[in-house]
Amino acid sequence: MTVNTPKGKTPRPKTSGSKSQDAPRLTRVGVKEFRDKATQLLAQATPFAVERHGKVIGFYTPLGTSPEQQDRVVQAATRLDDTMSRVADELGLSLDELEDLLVREAQ
After folding, report:
1. What is the mean pLDDT of residues 80-89?
2. At 6, is the secondary structure helix, strand, or coil?
3. Which is nearest to 61 in space by CA: 74, 16, 83?
């Protein structure tokens, strides 16, 4: 599938319905806080985003402890990487440009 958009325009994903009021909010921590409290943050086993100057630079998603859970996460991450690369190619963007676009849209 090829997406044709006017120069300078970015397609917005279509969503159905409104955002759930019950959806958990992702915890965001600054780089300094992450450095100072990494042990405690990682021990909580909950996902969080790491920010530098108010911009997300990474995500932490804990893996389950069983080999099956870890395999599923690795497979999902591989599929996500493949999908991101394919979408970037279809939009004529570099992977970095697509990632920047997604981060901007999430804020």
Report:
1. 93
2. coil
3. 74
Question: Is the pLDDT score of 69 beyond 70?
Answer: yes
What b/e readout covers 68-91, taking b as 16+ CB neighbours within 10 angstroms?
Answer: eeeeeeeeeeeeeeeeeeeebeeb
Is the CB of residue 48 less than 8 Å from the CB of residue 26? yes
Separation of alpha carbons 51 and 57, rounded Å: 5
Q: Tokens at residue 75, please?
A: 């497979």
List the structure tokens of 18.
């409104």
DSSP state of 21: T
- Name the 3-class secondary structure at 104: helix
Contact yes or no for 103/26 (Cβ under 8 A): no
Given this model, what pLDDT does residue 84 score?
Answer: 92
